[in-house]
Amino acid sequence: MNLKIKIPNFCQNEQKYILDILLREFLGINFEVKTYEGNFIEITRSGYFVESSHSAKLTLDASSFHKAKQDWLQPQSMPALPLATWIPGDDGIKANLILPNIPVLYGSPGLVNNDNHIHLNLDIFGSAFFMLSRYDELIIKNRDNYDRFPSSASVAFKANFLNRPIVDEYVEILWACLSKLWPDLKRKHYQSKTFITCDVDQPYDCTVETFSKLIKVCAGDLIKRRSLTKMLKRINRYVFNQLGIYKFDRNYTFDFYMDVCEQAGLKAAFYFIPSSKEPTNGCYEITDKKIVSLLHKIDARGHEIGIHGSYQTYQDQEKILQQKILVEETLKKVGINQKIRGNRQHYLRWDSAVTPDYLDAAGFEYDTSGSYADRPGFRFGTSKEFSMWGWRSQTKLKLKQRPLIVMECSVISDAYMGLGYGEEAKMLMMQLKQASQALGGNFVLLWHNSHFQNMEDKILFEKLVIE
Fold first, then answer.
1. Which among 123, 128, 135, 133 has a CA at the least distance from the CA of 167?
2. Same domain, 239 and 292
3. In a domain, 278, yes or no
4. Are 462 and 456 in contact (CB under 8 A)?
5. Are residues 314 and 377 in the same domain?
6. Which of 463-467's residues contact partners 24+ apart within 8 Å by CB, and which partners?
7. How far is CA 287 from the centre of its chain?
8. Would you give the distance in Å from CA 380 to the centre of its chain?
9. Could you give the CA distance from residue 371 to residue 407 in angstroms, rounded to a whole number?
10. From its phi and psi, is residue 193 left (phi > 0), alpha (psi between -120 and 50) or beta?
11. Sequence-ordered list of residues with C-beta below 8 angstroms from that of 120, at least 6 positions apart, any chain
């Protein structure tokens, strides 16, 4: 029998969206919804929407939607910091959590349990909507030099839960309450997956792409870097690359990349920039002969080809569609039958207000840009794939988000966390992998083909993929 849910008579689209994600997509439970004039979200399994003192019932705080109704997308509707925390186990809730205590975004700690009626003070649905919709990114105006929302501006970072999938934990609390009231209720069971992904920014050494570039950079090797050895090695790369032999090019690591993934029983996804004619993009066109040859190699080994939306596309609906059509037509023309399913934005540039709607309109099945550039973790609060919220359309989109959990340079690079290859870096990446899969979610790793510049890169990559 379906669950019967009554929701307050405001923010109805938002409430129906998050009910659909948590209950139907994450737990696999069907339900029916009706609005009423109350203040809580009420869940029953009775045959009709009628009051009965003998029916089991779960009610939940809905204070976030009350705040949103009064101060829509205003700072006053944000969670109040510092957040309270709650230990569900202290109130008899046996939920599968990363840590015993959990931050309370909206509502308050604790519950009331009167026989067959449980009332959760924690606003699970509103808190989850806040995270999955990236509500705070439409309010907070902080942006970095690339117009990206920085992790340091997020509530998750400020409240120290960026490294845990808090929405997945809220779902576990919700399930613990539902199954306590209705022990015969069945839930969906997830098989955790690992997705290895590659943004192909520089498939080869761009400095030896043409003879004119070679001359210019060789001059820099001699005059600025004072290195005859570097110049000779660069000339050597140029000669062999022109012959289609890339064994001296440290960026051209695709055979190694696919070998490691196949050893782990995985298929990688390679996201290509469709066109680099505009500034701050790659150094190739998807139609280049050597790129087409690489696409054939990837396809022949059964790996995925996707789109790495160029630097300018994240706020440009027309350009997103044009680039998708360009790649699709190129693949068709060269005899590659893969369907373009996935996208990741170049530089992880993302505007939560419009980018999901634009990608959805272009017909992408999923996006996997969902991480901060400066720090790894759970930007959306989940490691599970889910249907995205469209702020422009004010409804659930067909587009799925497959959240990116770790980008290698976010951890390693001095431009971001700067942890290098030490134990702290390895431990952080492995902890995020374990946290991703602890509650049945997915671990999505981004490792660039151009980031195998030393043996430490290869060792760490193999560890993350295989272990």
1. 128
2. no
3. yes
4. no
5. yes
6. 463/426, 463/430, 464/406, 464/429, 464/430, 464/433, 465/194, 465/196, 465/260, 465/261, 465/264, 465/266, 466/260, 466/263, 466/264, 467/430
7. 29
8. 7
9. 8
10. beta
11. 58, 59, 60, 61, 107, 111, 173, 177
Whether 138 and 211 share a structural domain:
no
Mark whether 243 and 133 lie in a shared domain.
no
End-to-end CA distance of the chain: 41
Range of the domain at 123: 3-181
CA atoms lying within 13 Å on the CB side of residue 3: 30
* 102 and 244 assigned to the same domain: no
Cα–Cα distance for residue pair 104/123, rounded to 1 Å: 8
Domains in the chain: how many in total? 3
Residue at 385 is within a domain: yes
Question: Which residues, including other chains, have CB under 8 Å from residue 386's CB and lie 6 or more apart?
Answer: 21, 25, 26, 132, 380, 400, 401
Q: Which residues of 84-98 are buried (b: 16+ CB within 10 A; e: fewer)?
A: bebebeeeebebebb
Any idea what the CATH number is for the domain that residue 306 is in?
3.20.20.370
DSSP code of 313? G
Report the pLDDT value the prediction gives residue 53, as an integer from 0 to 100: 46
Same domain assignment for residues 318 and 428: yes
pLDDT at residue 233 in the model = 81
Q: From CA 177, how far away is CA 174, in angstroms rounded? A: 5
Q: Are strands 102-104 and 107-114 parallel, antiparallel or unpaired?
A: unpaired
**Residue 136 belongs to some domain of the structure:** yes
Pair of tokens at residue 439? 């509650």
Look up tokens 């390679």; give the residue. Answer: 270
**What is the mean pLDDT of each successive set of 10 residues along the chain, which is 467 residues long?**
91 97 97 94 74 76 93 95 97 96 97 92 98 97 97 98 98 97 93 97 85 81 83 78 82 96 98 94 93 97 98 98 98 97 98 98 98 98 98 97 98 96 96 96 97 95 95
Q: Are strands 342-345 and 366-367 parallel, antiparallel or unpaired?
A: parallel
* Torsion over CA: 278, 284, 289, 293 (sign): negative
Answer yes or no: are the C-beta atoms of 449 and 251 closer than 8 Å: yes
One domain for residues 142 and 81: yes
Q: Is 163 helix (H, G, I), strand (E, B) or coil?
A: coil
> Exposed, middle or buried, 25 (CB in 10 Å: 0-12/13-18/19+)?
middle
C-alpha of 190 from chain center: 17
11 within a domain of the structure (yes/no): yes
Among 232, 248, 264, give the residue marking a domain's end. 248
Number of helical H runs and strand E runs in the chain: 15, 17
- Residue in the structure block whose two tokens are 């789109």: 307
- Same structural domain, 290 and 422: yes
Closest to 230 in 3D by CA, of 214, 245, 246: 214
List the strands of the sheet with 41-44, edge to edge.
Answer: 31-36, 3-8, 41-44, 57-60, 117-122, 107-114
